[in-house]
Design brief:
alpha/beta; six-stranded parallel sheet; elongated
Length: 190
Amino acid sequence: IEKHLHSPYFLFVSTLEPRKNILNLIKAFEYLKINYSIPHKLILIGKKGWDYNSIIDYINKSTFKEDIQHLDYISDQLLAVFYSQAEAFIYPSFYEGFGLPILEAMTLGSPVITSNTSSLPEVAGNAALYVDPYDYYQLAKMMLKILNNPDLRKEMISRGKQQANNFSWKNTALKTLNAYKSVLSKSKKL
């Protein structure tokens, strides 16, 4: 596993299943390999979900299959290292209930590229680059934008840590407490 950390890489972390839009992520990666000869790898970390065979088949047929690595399970400590050293964390999901991997990536210092759909913009705020999940070319352009702009990458890391802090347990507890106080004060007025 540690051999994967010696080359620059893009990272995806979640269950391998169609709604996660991994095929368009791979297409964007292949586009960059073909047109820009990037030295990067694409690392996919996660369990195999429903209908994962189409994803594995696509990887196996890719010209760049040696540069696309799937890791099923790794420890939380090693996962944190992968997040912190990624060129960018990419989460192009078609739909999500929340998008916890985005917050993990931001907390651990990885710039985030994600879909402009579902709950993902609410979770990522102004700390991510957004793409249409159906447009792999747009995704490739955003990946390239991070590669070509170190200042943007640093800014995204900083914004990401601030955004993730909005979802900390402490902030959640304080907001919940304030909501309870507000309800109690209104009920006393009745």
